[in-house]
Design goal:
Layout: E1 4-11, H1 16-33, E2 39-46, E3 52-54, H2 71-80, E4 85-88, H3 93-96, H4 98-105, H5 115-121, H6 124-132, E5 141-144, E6 156-160, E7 170-172, H7 178-186, E8 192-196, E9 202-211, E10 214-217, E11 221-223, E12 238-240, E13 246-248, E14 257-258, H8 264-279, E15 285-292, E16 298-303, H9 314-321, H10 326-339, H11 348-353
Parallel strand pairs: 1-2, 1-4
Antiparallel strand pairs: 2-3, 5-8, 6-7, 6-8, 9-10, 9-11, 9-15, 11-14, 12-13, 15-16
Amino acid sequence: MRIKRVLMLAGSPESRCMYNLSLRYTRDCFDALSRVDGFSFHVAVVQPNGDWRFSQKTGQPDLCLSDPVSRDTARDILRHSRYDVALPQLFCRAGMTDYRALLERLQIPFIGNTADVMGITANKATTKDSVSNVGVPVPAHQVMRGPDLQRLNPPFIVKPNDSDNSFGVSLVHHRSEIGKAFAAAREHSSCVLAEQFIPAGREVRCGIIQLGSKLECLPLQEYPLTDRNSIRQTSDKLIIGEAGSVELASKFKTSANTVPIDDPATRVVWDMAKRCHRALGCRDYSLFDFRIDPNGTPYFMEAGLYCSFAPKSILALMANEQGIGLETFFRKMAGQAMNRSGVGRSVETLRNTRRITRANYINEPSKLET
């Protein structure tokens, strides 16, 4: 049987923090999967300046890398390397869109969601509109043009519209706090979103694995909330050192609990998550956050459509709870990716969706601007 060549695509052309985070996940994934029978793993790392480095042999991603090469040279290397499947592990905006689009153009099949789906769901407001259209409740929300807001009343959340890991997120209790919250969000994005605060009831995440047309929901993970800790902060997800090093908070503290299948919330959230998965055009897997208010109504919060296949990756942990080990999970997803025909939906869609971040609405369909 021929050994399948896996490209682990890591790094970030945008941010040193995202670069370090990507390499952290990639190292952990490599350690866990590099000895899986039938596969050989090869690493390509996009540097913060846009250059690329490639693994010179199968080895630790930060120990056996080539000298930097230009983007054009990297493209030629990818074109001639005959990779069977790629595993994208970049978490910045360009990494989740442009670099997946590059794999599509080079016809390298890859695990996970397409570039255009990632481009759409990176926009939190547009994503909320999409799932709302299929009957999933979402908080009232509005894209902010400036540090003033008339159509929502406190308390509400102010956040970057296209940033993850809770960077720049603030809970506003009084209108006098809007200016500071808006400035904090603008440090991470040119587009700022305000959304009505859902009172602390429960916060859960739902993962889905797709095999063919079948959607399998994984056990919900619940994050404890209190009146004092009513929203999840960056420190709940990442530990960022003074020198820019990044560690996963889950390595040092366990903050999530598995929700029993017979919990009243489970079936309701599973149904909503399946609707979200289909409405957004997801493939292979998906991950959704829901906030459940004190009356028991779940509200869609956001989508996180990536998985690093590191042992501490939340989807890997959820799959393990379901009895699907990391190696089995990877084999299923890699096999499905390699068996797909075509290269995903048109990358022209990606170019169009980039304009959506400037849409101005509150719980109405997005209007593209030219």
